[in-house]
Amino acid sequence: MEFDPREHQHTRYNPLKDEWILVSPHRMKRPWKGQVEKPSEKKVQAKDLNNPLCPGAVRGNGEVNPDYKHTFTFKNDFPALLEDVPDPGPSQHPLFRSEAACGVCEVMCFHPRSDVTLPLMTLYEINEVIRKWSERTLELGKKYRWVQIFENKGEIMGCSNPHPHCQIWASSFLPNEARIEDRSQKDYYRKHGVPMLIDYVNQELEMQERSVVHNDHWIAVVPYWAVWPYETMLLPRRHVKRLYDLNDTERASLADIMKRLLTKYDNLFEVSFPYSMGWHGAPTGDMEHIENSHWQLHAHYLPPLLRSATVKKFMVGYEMLAQAQRDLTSEQAAAKLRELPEVHFMEYNSDYCEC
Ligand code: H2U
Ligand code: ZN
């Protein structure tokens, strides 16, 4: 029998995380009798003064939000990282290690309206979000090694608030994902003399099978080693280390590809598609000026949905105790996303108005 990646199980290597994933495409045929998520039926109001992220609303700390027109960034009122805390001191035993950790957490609202998510925004509005992302990375990166921008979208991802927003956590340490990606990209660069993700982008542009959308400056692909069914990576085609190294044209081009990708995501199951996304780029702070040529800026989009708006992929059992496993291949997922329209399904819906 000849090997067919669409039929036969195999493992794939993730060079960024130095991990393997089990691909079992033959399982796509199995019927689903498990948990079905309730679709979120609540219609989001454009403005709700009881929502602490809205313009003019009162936040947890008693402050009133300004009447903002585009983005609005504030220090998280319930931060996981504080700027000034005592140092735990040297560890006494190798099995009980700890290190000092400090940082700052911010929340960034993308738009004054709670019912306007990124794919429904204009390119100008998305560009405002990107400009703010760059600005905060530059500012917080003066002091901190790692500035993690991330968006949890949808209740299924534990997002507590429907208002379009992301969080920014800046830390004095490299979090695990960053540390591992740093090491893997460094090893690849030493071995091949080219940044790993530049090689990867060129391969994907040539092969086309996993590309979802691309434009002159960016490409969105379902990575060869994707774990989540419709996971994508968004990468610049040029070598760019950090968000604030993007020029005006590249930022405008990023707004274009984000709108196209996120519109496809929403169109897949005709819901506001839930995901966790985040940006990774070269470290900052006291690591900004060390050799970082191995780093390439990129974003990860990690959506939990599998076969409909209500069936989610569970990462349990084998995934928690052995390794990640997927049914649908990355190529099948990319083909499905590729064929979806780039006009948002809500734009056909007469219930939706611009009032
Ligand atoms: P998530 O929905 O992604 O969890 O983000 C909402 C964040 O907003 C959350 O981290 C913060 C929460 O701490 N927040 C405030 O800082 N002030 C408030 O008044 C409400 C929510
Ligand atoms: Zn990454």
Automatic annotation (TrEMBL):
<protein>
    <recommendedName>
        <fullName>Galactose-1-phosphate uridylyltransferase</fullName>
        <ecNumber>2.7.7.12</ecNumber>
    </recommendedName>
</protein>
<keyword id="KW-0808">Transferase</keyword>
<feature type="domain" description="Galactose-1-phosphate uridyl transferase N-terminal">
    <location>
        <begin position="2"/>
        <end position="175"/>
    </location>
</feature>
<dbReference type="InterPro" id="IPR036265">
    <property type="entry name" value="HIT-like_sf"/>
</dbReference>
<dbReference type="InterPro" id="IPR019779">
    <property type="entry name" value="GalP_UDPtransf1_His-AS"/>
</dbReference>
<keyword id="KW-0479">Metal-binding</keyword>
<feature type="domain" description="Galactose-1-phosphate uridyl transferase C-terminal">
    <location>
        <begin position="181"/>
        <end position="346"/>
    </location>
</feature>
<dbReference type="Pfam" id="PF01087">
    <property type="entry name" value="GalP_UDP_transf"/>
</dbReference>
<keyword id="KW-0299">Galactose metabolism</keyword>
<comment type="pathway">
    <text>Carbohydrate metabolism; galactose metabolism.</text>
</comment>
<keyword id="KW-0119">Carbohydrate metabolism</keyword>
<comment type="similarity">
    <text>Belongs to the galactose-1-phosphate uridylyltransferase type 1 family.</text>
</comment>
<keyword id="KW-0548">Nucleotidyltransferase</keyword>
<dbReference type="InterPro" id="IPR005849">
    <property type="entry name" value="GalP_Utransf_N"/>
</dbReference>
<keyword id="KW-0862">Zinc</keyword>
<dbReference type="InterPro" id="IPR001937">
    <property type="entry name" value="GalP_UDPtransf1"/>
</dbReference>
<dbReference type="Pfam" id="PF02744">
    <property type="entry name" value="GalP_UDP_tr_C"/>
</dbReference>
<dbReference type="InterPro" id="IPR005850">
    <property type="entry name" value="GalP_Utransf_C"/>
</dbReference>
